[in-house]
């Protein structure tokens, strides 16, 4: 126990403690769903978690659509390191060619392996490492359609990265120039890949997307090729659906036509069933506030298993104050988008702050923190939830991160210091923490209250100065400050 401050009753802190509280129960109609969802959330592997997750109550999904959509979460057979190691072997490039040829055959011949060839090419992103591996593959197998497509995918990804995600009006011209230069390098590689293997629809889908950004002639030609060789592919139809959006020159009616095309082919590729609600949910997704459209998004999400529609429904219900439904639909979205930080952050926030289910909030916020380890807002919320469930020691490392930035930086810094005050386990750390707090926020009364507390506990000569600063800056409307002022009145200065 710390010395001087105890004599004045200053070792209490404005920090909640773990307590046995009644766990809030969801509405009866959602309880079985949430029980199954919580069990599924314990599964780490994405596809297995997705398969274990319950379907939305009242859905009208096509048979097998959810299972097929979950298959998009399957990890590719080869990552870049495995490919690089294989290319070191004498026959490594030939083996890669055979593996990708097998994937292509399975894409056309086995429903369970549909679209996996597209996932195999997802590893060829904009990174230099991806470019280096693709270049080596092409050097060792110069007549390989698959190697050509790999290097093209890398350069195309680099082009999209150069462009960025802002609207065209907000994108500097030099970014478009960089994008165009990289696309120009990708185009002949994709074209050569299709010459060597016309059924490699990965290549024509990528050309469709590049054409959507830069050339309708290219887009039309690539779309025609894709439809001639792979008319039932989810990726082909999804790119057609993007093209049909009004922002790309399409219309609501054009989107409905693409959705009808997809639904007519669900028996050949169940994954197409995931697109069933996209035309219904697109127009409301352009609105600034989703609250008035929550039911529309929910209805669309019940038409087909889609991460975006469920996310929008969740945000709409949160806007309306229906937080249990918000949690339900955000969870369904995370089923298909398990690496989206904002889904776990938002769900954790609603659980902690609106519903009061701190234990569940901790689970979601820990996932959010794992996805964005340096996000101050996530660590602030997680610290608050942990204080209530596991205590200040568990919360401390999260407050330490959260105090470094964001709109809750000062509050997190205060909470971080309070963990030392409550636990009284490290006086030196308490002194360092409060010193940094008053330096960062010199007009903060709470900082000076804790600084005085720390210095009094250490019998430090500067304690009197800190007490005077607190007296000058204390908030008279804060009951805790009022109590401390009474205690400090007994201290001779």
Topology summary:
Layout: H1 4-7, H2 28-41, H3 46-52, H4 65-70, H5 80-87, H6 92-109, H7 116-121, H8 128-140, H9 145-163, H10 173-196, H11 201-214, H12 216-229, H13 234-243, H14 252-263, H15 278-285, H16 294-301, H17 307-319, H18 323-336, H19 341-355, H20 358-371, H21 376-389, H22 392-402, H23 409-423, H24 427-440, H25 445-457, H26 463-473, H27 479-488
Helix pairs in contact: 2-3, 2-18, 5-6, 5-8, 8-9, 9-10, 9-11, 10-11, 11-12, 11-13, 13-14, 14-15, 15-16, 16-17, 17-18, 18-19, 19-20, 19-21, 20-21, 21-22, 22-23, 23-24, 23-25, 24-25, 25-26
Summarize the structure.
The chain has 493 residues and is mainly α. 67% of the residues lie in helices and 0% in strands.
Observed structural traits:
mainly alpha; 493 residues; Serine Threonine Protein Phosphatase 5, Tetratricopeptide repeat; single chain
CATH class of the domain at 62-237: Mainly Alpha
| Beta strand % | under 5%
Low-confidence stretches: none
Largest β-sheet summary: none
> What value does the average pLDDT take?
94
Terminal-residue CA separation: 24 Å
| CATH topology value of the domain at 62-237 | Serine Threonine Protein Phosphatase 5, Tetratricopeptide repeat
Name the shape in a single word. Answer: elongated
State the share of residues found in helices, binned by percent.
Answer: 55-70%
Give Rg in angstroms: 28 Å
- Write the element-wise H/E pattern from the N-terminal end onward: HHHHHHHHHHHHHHHHHHHHHHHHHHH
Strand elements, count: 0
Number of helices: 27
Structural class: mainly alpha
Task: Please tell me the CATH architecture of the domain at 62-237 by its name.
Answer: Alpha Horseshoe
